[in-house]
Specification:
The chain is an alpha+beta fold. The chain contains twelve helices and 27 strands. A hairpin with a 5-residue loop joins strand 16 and strand 17.
């Protein structure tokens, strides 16, 4: 009786100890969803949206609380205006139909609807691009212009005009629809996806797979490269550039136009020039052609912006492009703009701290600079049920608690480090390198380390007196001396720190990970020592007696292995705290109960 009383009190104490931790995790909410560069803060600016797909700021907003500060597109077909006091108003709605099947959004890859959003401040125009479901059931592209009657814009549209009606003659496809727009030098540029058929892109009589240029009234711009005055309103009249696949990023800067074009295995960033064929022919090779930068593997570029105004961010972050990533889930910054090309490579500015490489909750599609920071919008609601517009500000005294320089999720670390560009893991990634699945990886490495060929190769590497080989002589000797799991783990750590440490012909590039990241990735890929040893034991049992009688695994050992498989999934410190506190509280309560009973 006393024993079961003690156990009950112990379990009760564990519950009280663990409960505050669960509350703390819940109160942290969305904050743990994101990591950003050090010195920056993240906060929710407005929320309550349905699939926010694009953001556009009024260049010179008024000072009154009810003056419009920025606009937000919702994929379902609603344009919203946000005022200085952060009230959210419906600016325009019910101007196209999506179809009943669109409401479920069961597949992230099949999104379509209201995408592009840009402003003409002098005229007070709001341009939007969208794909609608026609009466025949096919998807078709369109452009609408809303008038506000004021350079400072208004909370509700006063008039509207449907433009580019010729686009309806060319059915499109989900995700390969019409995309962003930009107003540059009183001309409207609009990017249009290839409609899921690459053959459309290089046919100038087909508007799909193009960058189109209009007047602000929706006419073909007379300076377009294929414009013929006597051949009015033909698709070629509107074509500014062609041969693109799915350019969901578009930005005009100082009279120049830049695009981020979604490929298949790779994406590209490129400056768009009039009359140029950007060569999309259905292959990754064509996506790489003429690119200023190639993103490999693909990151799913979306809305694009450029910071030129001083004072919003530190000098090291200014005069650069910022690109929303719908496939990778985050934001890249890159490319100090010069006369030819760029002088730096993309760096991760923001990333989603998802549960796995298949977690799409944080895909970022909307992005725009405001007067005080960089605003962004994930397409889908976060894990706490809110679809919001967030703002990133430079506030070192109030910086976000999670930084992009640290990564505690091994699956995301593999993706971010480029491992999946060559290796296959859990049916994701490339096939150039061997599989990283534990069932394939561990036996393959152990077989290699045990071979005479490998030991001989270490002697060959020892004979070299050049870097990096001569820097790892001690590590190679350690691999010779270790055995079993310790040898496997040490080899993996050294291999990730420097792939050439024991191999003259290593083709794997150095992932440039910290020691902590290397150890995290190593333990994730090869598993716990008990799991590896158990797997070896099971292999021996399955093979049966060969020379020696197989040793059966006892019931006690099987239970130990079962517990060890469960415990790593829990938080160690919480278990220790729970059992420690529970034990103390249980003993005290048992002593008090016993004294009370004696009295």
């Amino acid at each position: 009786m006393r024993f079961w009383l003690f156990i009950g009190l112990l379990l009760l104490a564990m519950g009280f100890v663990l409960a505050p931790n669960a509350q703390a995790q819940e109160s942290e909410g969305w904050i743990s969803d994101w990591a950003v560069e050090e010195g920056f803060s993240i906060s929710i600016d407005t929320e309550g949206y349905a699939f926010p797909s694009a953001i556009a700021f009024v260049p010179e907003p008024g000072d009154a609380p009810d003056d419009v500060l920025y606009f937000v597109n919702e994929l379902d077909g609603v344009v919203k205006a946000v005022t200085n006091d952060r009230s959210v108003h419906v600016f325009a709605t019910d101007f196209f139909a999506l179809g009943e099947e669109h409401a479920s959004f069961e597949s992230v890859s099949d999104e379509y609807g209201l995408t592009g959003l840009c402003l003409a401040p002098e005229q007070g125009y709001v341009f939007v691009t969208y794909t609608y479901r026609a009466e025949d059931g096919l998807l078709r592209n369109s452009i609408a212009r809303f008038e506000t009657g004021s350079p400072q814009f208004a909370r509700e549209a006063k008039a509207s005009l449907v433009m580019a009606e010729f686009l309806a003659e060319f059915p499109t496809g989900p995700s390969h629809q019409i995309g962003p727009c930009q107003v540059v030098d009183d001309a409207l540029y609009v990017s249009v996806g290839d409609g899921l058929d690459w053959r459309n892109s290089r046919d100038i009589e087909n508007p799909l797979g193009k960058i189109l240029r209009f007047t602000l009234d929706g006419e073909a711009h007379p300076e377009n490269p294929f414009y013929l005055e006597d051949d009015k309103d033909k698709p070629a009249d509107y074509v500014y550039a062609y041969g693109v696949r799915n350019p969901f990023g578009l930005k005009g800067i100082n009279g120049r136009l830049f695009a981020a074009d979604n490929g298949e295995g790779i994406d590209r960033f490129v400056e768009i020039e009039g009359g140029v064929d950007y060569l999309w022919n259905g292959s990754d090779l064509s996506i790489g052609a003429g690119a200023d930068y190639v993103f490999a593997p693909a990151v799913g570029p979306a809305q694009l912006d450029y910071i030129g105004a001083p004072g919003i961010f530190p000098e090291s972050n200014e005069e650069q492009f910022y690109l929303a990533l719908s496939g990778w889930a985050g934001i890249y910054r890159f490319g100090s703009l010069g006369t030819a090309g760029f002088d730096n490579l993309p760096e991760v500015f923001l990333r989603y701290r998802g549960e796995s490489i298949n977690d799409y909750s944080g895909i970022v599609v909307g992005l725009a600079f405001g007067p005080d920071g960089l605003y962004f919008s994930p397409l889908l609601p976060n894990g706490h049920g809110s679809a919001a517009v967030y703002v990133i500000r430079y506030e070192p005294e109030n910086q976000h608690p999670y930084f992009v320089g640290t990564q505690d999720n091994p699956e995301i670390l593999m993706r971010d480090s480029g491992c999946l560009a060559c290796h296959l893991y859990n049916e994701q990634g490339g096939t150039v390198g061997p599989s990283l699945d534990q069932a394939d990886l561990v036996p393959r490495i152990q077989e290699r380390l045990a071979s005479e060929t490998y030991l001989q190769s270490l002697d060959d590497v020892d004979a070299l007196d050049s870097e990096p080989y001569n820097l790892y002589a001690g590590e190679r000797q350690e691999i010779r001396e270790l055995q079993g799991y310790e040898q496997l783990r040490a080899w993996m750590i050294y291999h990730l720190l420097e792939p050439k440490f024991d191999n003259l012909n290593a083709a794997m590039p150095n992932p440039e990970l910290s020691l902590g990241e290397v150890e995290l990735l190593t333990d994730f890929l090869i598993g716990e020592p008990q799991a590896v040893e158990q797997e070896q034991t099971e292999e021996i049992e399955e093979a049966g007696p060969q020379g020696e009688e197989a040793v059966p695994v006892s019931f006690r050992e099987r239970m130990q292995n079962l517990v060890l498989e469960i415990i790593p999934e829990l938080r160690y410190r919480h278990i220790l705290i729970a059992f420690g506190a529970g034990g103390v509280v249980g003993i005290v309560l048992y002593w008090v109960a016993r004294r009370f009973r004696n009295r």
